[in-house]
């Protein structure tokens, strides 16, 4: 039976989010900032399509936020499903189709190689959403996160090696089995495995910080021309691999674009892996993360030229990146 995992620019039914409630990560003024960020983001996305937000049991929408949700062009639904963290991209379901029938696929989730417990609630989210939506679910017995995969909607996918095998992940000897499971789950004909992601990315180098399809034949990737940067050589290696691979599949129609990385900030000793690759789509719009005014404008002009019929919206993600993620990491599209 033919299986299809749509490209993200295809028409979407909804955007799924998980509301921030983990006081270990979001405390004091950071909690106020992230809460404001979520409500503002929900307001933006709901101009274009429905939004579904996972919230803890007993959660209530603050009275101060009711007014614009009532005025939203599309519905905003708050759904009581327990979560541990906000990064629904990684633990949320893969919304797929078999012969045009909706299905859900899921992999095991253990918070990026058992780095950030607890994760029990997050690991159960796909099953709970499948039950809520009354659609069949198929489970695959390997550790794998949604931010680790990028697809073009025509059977091609890209991922990174360290997200497939490694400490508290899948065994190295099972790499071929893991690749096959991903292809089976998402209906892929070919899965390219790049050697490295961004330096400092505690997801072990998710592809959604490195390279994204923007059409079936075109890829945009993060770039760093500073020869002293720890990202310089790995990204150059990725570029050579991607150019060869996309041309093998699409000939002269295949191309790889470059967008410079924004400044890589620090929080204590940790690098904050900011990247313009962490953008998301809505119907008629593209939202991209903003970090630095000079580099942000380069990204804005690139997306504006690429998608003249979409509204291009920059979103300040300086608070979000403090926990290591951005727009794509904290959202999941349902096509």
Features:
L-arginine/glycine Amidinotransferase, Chain A; four-stranded mixed beta sheet; alpha/beta
Structure in words:
The chain has helices at 28-45, 63-70, 88-91, 111-114, 120-123, 125-133, 175-186, 232-250, 293-306; strands spanning 3-4, 14-18, 51-55, 76-80, 94-98, 101-108, 137-143, 150-151, 156-160, 190-194, 211-215, 218-223, 255-260, 265-267, 270-272, 280-282, 285-290, 311-316, 331-334. It has 335 residues and is α/β, with parallel strands linked by helices. The protein has one domain (3-334): L-arginine/glycine Amidinotransferase, Chain A. It has a four-stranded mixed β-sheet, with helices on both faces. A four-stranded mixed β-sheet has the order 4-3-2-19. Strands 8-9-10 form a three-stranded mixed β-sheet, sandwiched between helices. A hairpin with a 4-residue loop joins strand 8 and strand 9 (156-160). The protein is globular. It starts with a strand and ends with a strand. The model has no long low-confidence stretch (mean pLDDT 95).
Helix content: 25-40%
First-to-last CA distance: 19 Å
CATH C-level = Alpha Beta
Strand percentage: 25-35%
Main sheet specs: 4 strands, mixed
Structural class: alpha/beta
CATH topology: L-arginine/glycine Amidinotransferase, Chain A
What would you call the quaternary organization? single chain
Cα gyration radius (Å): 19 Å
Helix-strand pattern, N to C?
Answer: EEHEHEHEEHHHEEEHEEEHEEEEEHEE
CATH superfamily: L-arginine/glycine Amidinotransferase, Chain A
- Low-confidence segments, given as residue ranges, are none
> What is the tally of beta strands?
19
